[in-house]
Amino acid sequence: PGETINRPLIDPTTPPNGGVVPKVVMLISNSGALTVATAPDEPSSATVFWGQTDVPFSKFRFTSVGEGLFIEKLTFGPEASNEQVGAAANLLRVTISYKNQAGETLSSSASSNSQGIVNFSWSGPNRPYVPKDSSTDITISADLARADQGATNAVFSLDFLTSYVASVQNGFRA
After folding, report:
1. How far apart are CA 118 and CA 170, in angstroms?
2. More confident position, 114 or 12
3. Looking at the chain, which runs of residues are DSSP E strands?
C-alpha cells in the first residue's frame, strides 16, 4: 500500500522522517551584499617625489555576504575637489592589484582624466572577484610625473569613488 508521508498528521506522537530532524536549511535571497572599507594595512601618508614609480597610495578591503561577486567597474581619485588639479598634474599611471576568481593576483593600469580620476572596467574571468562570505583587498599604486612632464607640488589622495564623470553607473559596479 505505499509509504505514509508526513506521519504526524496521522499520528502526532511520531516525528516526521522517523525521528530524524532535517539538516538541510535553505535561505533564499535575491542578492548578496558588498561593503568597502580601508584595509587594515593601508599605506600611511607620506612625502613622495616627482618621478617615483609604483608608489603605494591606497588599499581597500571589499567584503561580500551571501554570494561571491565580480567587480566590473572601479573608480579612484581625489574625493576633495581641491586635490584634483594636483592629482591630474602628477599622476602618469595608476595601477591596481587584485585577485580574480581563480585566486591569481593580477593588475590593471590606466591614466587619469583631467580631474585626477581613474576608472577601470572589466568583463570576463580576469576581473576582481570577492568570494562569498569573504574579503579581498585591492591595492592602488601610481607612477608619478617628473618636472619635465608637468609635475607640480601638490597634496592629493586616491580615494574609492562611486561615480565617474557624474555617473554612478560608470563609477562602480559589482
Report:
1. 11
2. 114
3. 33-38, 55-65, 69-70, 73-77, 91-99, 105-110, 118-121, 129-130, 135-144, 159-161
- Please tell me what DSSP assigns to residue 164: B
Sorting pLDDT into bands at 50, 70 and 90, what band is 1? very low
CB 71 within 8 A of CB 174: yes
CA 150 to chain centre: 31
Terminal alpha carbon distance of the chain: 54
Residue 131 in grid coordinates: 568570494
> 93 to each of 64, 77, 121, 130, 145, how far by Cα in Å?
29, 12, 15, 25, 9
To which residue does cell 608637468 refer? 150
Q: What is the DSSP letter of 20?
A: P
Bigger pLDDT: 38 vs 168: 38
Summarised one tens digit per residue, pLDDT across range 49-96 is 999 999 999 999 999 998 999 999 999 999 888 999 999 999 999 999
Which is it for strands 129-130 and 73-77: parallel, antiparallel or unpaired?
unpaired
Nearest to 86 by CA among 48, 135, 39, 139: 48
* Residue 108 near residue 96, CB atoms below 8 Å: yes
